[in-house]
Design goal:
four-stranded antiparallel β-sheet; 204 residues; 4 helices; two-stranded antiparallel ribbon; 27% helix; alpha+beta; rod-shaped
Length: 204
């Protein structure tokens, strides 16, 4: 047993502590060494005996609960990773529109200070093929409309782009020798086999 005043180990049957001189009360609860007590409890538990386990503090319970929740979140993200967007943390719409704007700005007829506006996803086939419209206006107020087909390969991360554009309501073009307009070009993309509408993209 140990002295209640200074904590030193007492000699068996001692009435006073030989270190601090405090009186030993006869009804004092015997305290065992904490490390020895834990070893003893583990030993009893392993041997099939029963023992009382010290309750966890409130702070420790909260920490364990938070840790468990974090593990669940990590596991959920890992399991659901296969269904995640091919565009990562960005939304599908943001990626498609940003690429459409970038594609239009790459054209020799678009000056660096021209705004690209009215960007709209007209259609998608669910296979990472997108038809997008956009408009630009030069410093003289002349508007040009653009219709783009953007094709993503989600395995390689590469993409292809096809562009029709003109500054009038319609223009002589390549649809059956007739005129192409911003209304009939989307259908041209959908029905012409060379564009692979409705097919998975595997771009080399």
């Amino acid at each position: 047993m140990f002295c209640k005043n200074c904590g030193n180990e007492l000699k068996k049957g001692a009435a006073f502590c030989h270190e601090c001189g405090a009186k030993v009360e006869l009804n004092e609860t015997v305290q065992s060494n904490p490390i020895e007590a834990n070893v003893s409890q583990l030993s009893m538990a392993n041997s099939g005996g029963t023992t009382s386990v010290k309750k966890m503090s409130k702070g420790k319970i909260i920490l364990v609960a938070v840790f468990a929740i974090l593990i669940i979140i990590v596991l959920a993200c890992a399991i659901g990773g296969g269904d995640s967007s091919p565009f990562g943390e960005y939304s599908e719409e943001d990626v498609v529109k940003t690429l459409a704007i970038s594609t239009v700005r790459e054209q020799y007829s678009v000056s660096h200070d021209q705004d690209v506006y009215d960007v709209e996803i007209l259609d998608t086939d669910g296979k990472c093929n997108y038809i997008v419209s956009a408009t630009t206006e030069d410093k003289h107020g002349f508007e040009t409309w653009w219709i783009l087909l953007l094709k993503f390969d989600t395995d390689s991360g590469k993409y292809l782009k096809y562009i029709h554009y003109h500054g009038e309501d319609d223009w002589y073009g390549e649809i059956d020798g007739g005129r192409f307009t911003k209304d009939n070009i989307p259908e041209y993309y959908r029905t012409n086999d060379e564009f692979g509408w409705g097919e998975e993209n595997h771009i080399e």
